[in-house]
Amino acid sequence: MAPPSYRQHRGPGFGGMDRPWLPDSNVRYRDRCFWDSRYREVGAAPAEWFGGLSCFREQLEAELRPGDRILVLGCGNSALSSDLFRLGYTDVTSIDYSPVCIAGMRARYAQCQGLQWLVMDARDLAFADGTFDVVLEKGTLDSMMVAETDPWNVSPETMALLDQVLKEVSRVLRPGGRFVSITFAQPHFRKRHYAQPAYGWSLRHSTYGADFHYFLYIMCKGQALSPADLELGRRLHEPPCPAHPPSFLQASDSEDYLSAIEL
Asked: Are the C-beta atoms of residues 259 and 21 closer than 8 Å to each other?
């Protein structure tokens, strides 16, 4: 899931290693209680995984249109939603399953009348079919996969979790809508999860960053997958390969995941 230099990338805004809200186990990044505790500790001050909007604005704005209805999954305390609002994208709904997070974001951005903040689980979106023109996620799917130790052989539990989320994303996108997923996961690991015919979208990607590259995966609902991507998607369901050395992943279960991300 991450490159060999994973441990070398320290995140902006997190300072030294004395961060009591870091979990004692990576699997806790999938635990709502951990995130509630974290947001009580750090509040709603912006913190960015994979850099702020300025790092990938050109690639993202190429996928946006004036008047788009935008959904941000797992918004956390990122400034992405408010940054989009300030650029003129004024119909932005942001969800997170942490009520502590959403309460803090509502208070912080109360003056931005076009922003909505809702407590919601990405596996069960409370929106009608075809509600949104664009769905964005930045690091949310990565947090769901952080406990995996071999990106070639993702556990059935995590595969099912991702499938739940991606089916919901496809459902709430209108025909022609775009899903943009921002991540550090390289194409040979991540594309096969997105390249499933059931989602009804095409797939392409671009990169940003200098010494360390991050990826934007763009899926357009109603367009067909290429034959190559269909083949990638098919391989996801093949029997597991022999285990690969996990040296390019978290070196241990206590990996400092949040501080391992920097441009």
From this structure: no
| Contacts made by residues 84-87, CB under 8 angstroms, sequence distance 24+ | 84/53, 85/109, 85/112, 85/114, 85/115, 87/61
Instruction: Tell me if 214 sits within 8 A of 56, measured CB to CB.
Output: yes
The structure tokens listed for 237 are 């369901």
- Alpha carbon distance 46, 105 (integer Å): 10
Q: pLDDT tens digits for 50-65?
A: 889 999 999 999 999 9
**What is the per-residue pLDDT across 87-118, written as a single tens digit (0 to 9) for each?**
999 999 999 988 998 999 999 999 888 899 99
**216: which strand partners?**
182, 206
Q: Which amino acid is at 52?
A: G
Distance CA 18, CA 252 (A): 18
Write out the two tokens for 9: 């990338």
